[in-house]
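stage 2 :: seqdesign
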């Protein structure tokens, strides 16, 4: 969740706290704030236990990154060199392979989902492989399209 969403969410919590002070019922608060009654009841318990301060945002969720900024830069360099450079025979990165590279190089273990988030954060996106052979011969393909394809197509 980004900072703007956290601010919006905290604003709703503060509105709810003001309504708690007025002793408004949870159903009415939920309707006014357009949230579920269950959420309002949860917020009211927190407010009862710790006041308005208990409703304040505790910051972004999730765990801290296990790699430093320098290591993230190094990881990007390792990935840019390609999987063949790291011992795999085909030129496709998979999450399992990236996990293995991170463990080998940095001694840190990640889950597949964690690596997916990490790659997204450093600017990589999921790609559908074109599945083209590395031995591909463009001239032979062009010749086949010119000579053979018309008869195949009918």
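stage 2 :: out
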């Amino acid at each position: 969740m980004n900072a703007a969403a956290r601010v919006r969410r905290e604003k709703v919590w503060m509105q709810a706290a003001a309504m708690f002070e007025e002793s408004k019922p949870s159903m009415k608060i939920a309707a006014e704030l357009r949230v579920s009654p269950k959420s309002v009841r949860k917020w009211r318990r927190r407010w009862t236990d710790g006041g308005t301060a208990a409703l304040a945002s505790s910051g972004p969720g999730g765990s801290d990154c296990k790699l430093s900024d320098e290591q993230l830069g190094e990881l990007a360099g390792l990935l840019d060199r390609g999987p063949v450079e790291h011992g795999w025979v085909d030129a496709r990165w998979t999450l399992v392979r990236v996990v293995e590279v991170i463990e080998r190089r940095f001694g840190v273990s990640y889950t597949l989902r964690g690596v997916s988030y990490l790659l997204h954060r450093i600017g990589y996106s999921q790609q559908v492989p074109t599945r083209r052979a590395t031995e591909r011969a463009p001239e032979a393909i062009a010749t086949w399209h010119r000579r053979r394809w018309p008869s195949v197509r009918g």
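stage 3 :: structure notes
- The mean pLDDT is 88.
- The radius of gyration is 27 Å.
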